[in-house]
Amino acid sequence: MNNKENQRVRLTKMLFRNSLISLLKKKSVYQISVTELCEKSEMNRSTFYKYYGNVRDVFTEIEEETLKQGQKCMQEIEASGINYAIQPLYRLLCYIKENKDLYKLLLNNSVDDNFSSVMIQDTIDFLKYKSQNILADNNNFSDYIFQYILSGCIHVIQSWIDNSMEESPEEIAQLIYNASISVIEKYKE
User: Which sign, positive or negative, has the C-alpha torsion 134, 136, 137, 138?
Assistant: First the structure.
């Protein structure tokens, strides 16, 4: 019985999430009311309030699930093929390309930079680890350098998504990686 309840809850939440994604194609998250979301999902308001406090809660759940899936795909790094150092970013970009409509909606509707920052954070952490020895002498400024790199990565990915992803994930990953390493190496001089 408990398993059925869990499945029912998952299906109900999935209906709300899918309905919100559909509505986000037409308007921003702040323009969508609970009533409108309930009508779209063909669910009643009491069911909505059983699981969520407002429409933003559904949006946050979509963001969290998307981030979790993106991180999962980066953890499946293979030792062969594309350069190992850019694999986390490459895998993320492949996942983003496969789910471009969802990422475009989330990046364009995000209220804060949290989603975009967390989206690329694993790759930045990998770069931090790789360049730890390079920046050891300049530890006071390394956090600023990585914030600079993080902002650049986010904007490159956002532009790539907005420009119909004409370049391959491998090309964008290489661009971001090379630019990041250049900044790190330039700073060590």
Answer: positive
